[in-house]
Write a structure and sequence with these properties.
Helix 2 packs antiparallel against helix 3. Helices cover 17% and strands 41% of the residues. It has one domain: Jelly Rolls.
């Protein structure tokens, strides 16, 4: 089954979400600027931005359905194993919008984002290993692996701010994703070390 939508919360559990029908998403001349404006409109006045994830997921799916330009925004890796291309950057704009390219076999550290996030796979395969934070003992930080979810082109995954994961590019070709994140709270963004039971600021 293709074009699946998923949500992951702080408990490390993933759940399938209803995906809109592709023909309901079709638009003429649907470009990045329109997408960004619609995301801003959805978030306007929202006390809990994570509650808006279903609407933003739909907008991300509309964008990747209609915009060949977004689909083609991947940088060559050359000597690097990871490449990040910022698609929009304006002073005071609270969202991060980018494409990320991973070489096959590249694996991230275990982290959260300190904000909500939505990732759409444009090319390749991406395995998400999911974790949850458990008890803190004597200042140590414990996390427990809760599952794995492999995403394919057309799949979209969304996270709330305390979801913890690491990602790995699977297969023989680079993995390319479209990513959008809310405004990160740097005090809440961590990289986790499950062996030494530590969390450090990302």
């Amino acid at each position: 089954m293709k074009n699946r939508d998923w949500f992951v919360g702080g408990d490390g559990q993933y759940q399938a979400c209803k995906s809109p029908r592709e023909w309901d998403l079709l638009r003429d001349n649907y470009r990045l600027y329109r997408f960004l404006t619609e995301v801003e409109d959805v978030l306007k006045g929202a006390e809990d931005e994570s509650s808006r994830l279903p609407e933003i997921r739909m907008l991300v799916r509309r964008l990747i359905t209609n915009s060949y330009w977004v689909q083609s925004q991947a940088q060559e890796l050359s000597d690097n194993k990871t490449s990040v291309l910022l698609l929009y950057d304006e002073l005071g704009f609270p969202l991060t919008v980018q494409t990320v390219t991973f070489a096959p076999g590249v694996k991230s550290n275990i982290h959260n984002h300190g904000t909500w996030g939505i990732v759409a796979v444009l090319q390749g395969e991406e395995k998400n290993t999911l974790w949850k934070r458990t008890q803190n003992h004597n200042g140590s930080v414990q996390i427990e692996q809760t599952g794995e979810l492999t995403l394919f082109p057309g799949d979209i995954i969304s996270f709330n701010s305390d979801a913890i994961h690491c990602v790995e590019a699977m297969g023989d070709t680079p993995t390319v994703t479209f990513n959008i994140y809310g405004e990160t709270d740097p005090k809440q963004r961590y990289e986790f070390d499950p062996v030494n039971k530590k969390a450090k600021k990302f």
